[in-house]
Structures are given as C-alpha cells and as structure tokens.
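== Protein entry: sequence and backbone fold ==
=== Local backbone shapes as whole numbers ===
==== Amino acids and backbone structure tokens ====
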Amino acid sequence: MPADAPPPLPVLPEKDRTSWTGLILSVLLLIFLAGGLLSLADDLLMLIDHRELSIFRALGSLAVLAAGGITYLLVALFPRIPKRVFLPLALFVPTATIATLPLLIHFPSHFSSISIAVSILHTALALQLIRLSRGDRKLRWPFFAESSLRPSPFRWTHAIGVSAAGLLILLPLFAGAIILCARHAVDHFSDGFVTLTPAGVSMQARTYVRDDGRTVHLVPMSHVGEEDFYQNLSESIPENAIVLMEGVSDHQQLFRPQKGYTKMAEAIGAVEQQQAFKPRGLLVPADVDMSEFSPATREMLKNAMLIHTQGITPETLPYLMKPTPKGLEKQLMEDILTKRNQHLLKVLHEKLEHAEHIVIPWGAAHMPEIAREIQKTGFRLKNTHNHLAIRFGS
C-alpha cells in the first residue's frame, strides 16, 4: 500500500449495518412509540385540566394510523420483515379501538381511566416491539436491527395471501365490529328510542297511559329525515291533543339566525323537520329561552352552527382548535338536556290538568329522561310504533 494512500474504511458488523429497509422500519417504530408517548402525556395533562397537547395528539394518532397501513403493506410485499414485530404495530389502532368501544359505551364516566390504560398499553407495546427488533433492551437508533430480517425473497403467493387476509378478513371484521358497536351505542344511550337497522335510522314512538285516562305520546324526532316520516307522524297525532313543541326561543336576540340543517338534508337526500313536520292539535311552546343558557354554552352553539353551515375553512378552523373552557362538557349537558327537560316536564304537568292527550315531539336525546320521569308519576307504557326516519341508500 502506498504511503500516501488513505486508510481503508472500517467494515461494520452485519448486525450494525442499516439499509433503507431498516431505516424505514425504524421510522415506523419511532412514529408508533411517539404516538403512544404523546397520548399518554395528553391523558396525564387532562387530569389537571390542561389540553395543550390535544391537537398534537390528534395529529399523532393520524400518523400512527397511516404508519399502520404502510406497515401492513410492507409486510405483504417483503416476507423478510418479521411479522411478530410489525403486524401488532399495523393492527394496534383498529384492535384497540374496537376493544375499548364497549367499555366507553357502558362506562362513559371512566373515559379518562380507559384512555390512560390504552395509552400505557400502546407505549409498552412500542417499547417491546423495539426490543424484539433489536434483540436487546437498549433503546438506541436505529430501532430496527438488520439482523432481524429473515433471508426470504419476494413471493407473489405471500403478497397476495397477506393482502387478501387484510381486504377479505380483517377489514370486513373491523368494519362489522364498529357497526355493531355503533348500533349498540345508539340503542344504549337512547334507551331504545333510536335504532340503527340495515334499512336506516328508526325512531320508536311510545304511548304512556295513566289510571286517570291521561295519555302522553313520546315521539323522538330528528332535525332531518324522510318526508314520509314527518307526514306519518303528523297524521298520527290526535286533533284534540296538546303538542308541546321543541324550539329554544331567543327573545333577546342573543343568537344570530343560521341556515339551519338545509346543507345536511341535501347531503343525505332528506328534508328538514321544520319544513315537513306539520302536527295537528294545539301547539304549545315548551322550551326554554336562549338567555337561560350560560355564556359558554351560547358561544359553543354559535361556533358549532358556524362550522356546520360553512364547513371547515381557514375562517372556521381556529374555532376547532380553540381549547374548551374547564367544565364545558358538564355545562352543555346541564343547559341543552337537563334544564330543557325540567322546563318541559313542568309544562307537561300543567297541561295534564286540562288535557287527556299530550304529544311530545322532541329530539331523541331528550326521550330517555322524559320517559323515566313520567313513569315516576304513574304513567305506564301502553304501546310502541317504529318509524323509519332516515333511509340508507336510495
């Protein structure tokens, strides 16, 4: 070797070399780990009412979901990638979502605890997958060691088999599980007043009677629906009934009029309730006034209607990113449900002194509490009738 020749470059051991494959797999593991840490940090901060990381957590969750899809595709194309490491990464988000949905439906008050448990599991799984890919407990870059790749060439049978398993088995399985959970959630939270069926969204009208002959008809409503849904309900109301109408008044003009639900109705090929529902009988306003809502609730309603009518635009995006005030969720429930239900029940008991038939065509979310309260005063369920409010498909 000439004296002025440069020294030869050192040859790294095989296990320390990192190819583009190893780098990509390391990045996917990093995204998965970062998503778990970000979720856990956000959950812990929310315990002390800090939501600064919520928007970043949402973006991180999208990144983890995308990384899972890319990982599954790579596993299908490259048999060398160890499935025991990267299939859990690819399937974690849909599996964890489906596993936690029933818990959130039946234990909504434990949302924080459930979310923290999932975040801890996410983070622990990410660390375990990194350990398996490196073969040791050291957390260092790159996360994936080349020695973990198996000496297996590309095979069409492998690619088609893994892809088919995802498209024909896993995807329908996850979709079916989510549909079942959604149906169960709607039935659970509406106490059976609303049901998701293969045909569409069904509303269950219920008739309650009391020993003195008084009758109360609870008719769950939807802001948008099929035209014949509203026509059938209108015709089913007795002409001698008193109809306690829903609709928050605004005598002080605190809430600027919006376009309503026209955009939503057009999107699903339906009509608005206020246009198609023409009940018979004596119509009596039975809702509260906007002035009875808290300022925080009024502000939230304004922002929600603005986004609903204009969509997500550069002008409305800041409203979505704006942090919610402490205790807003509880205040919203108090104003939008509890306070309005209490006022309605007060009007109901006043009208029952002079009327035999009372009809309450209110939003489905109000029905469970109203039904429970009237049964406490001696009313019992007489019959039910299901109405298809929104059809799926043509």
Notes: Residues 16 and 145 are 7 Å apart (CA to CA). The longest helix spans residues 156-189.
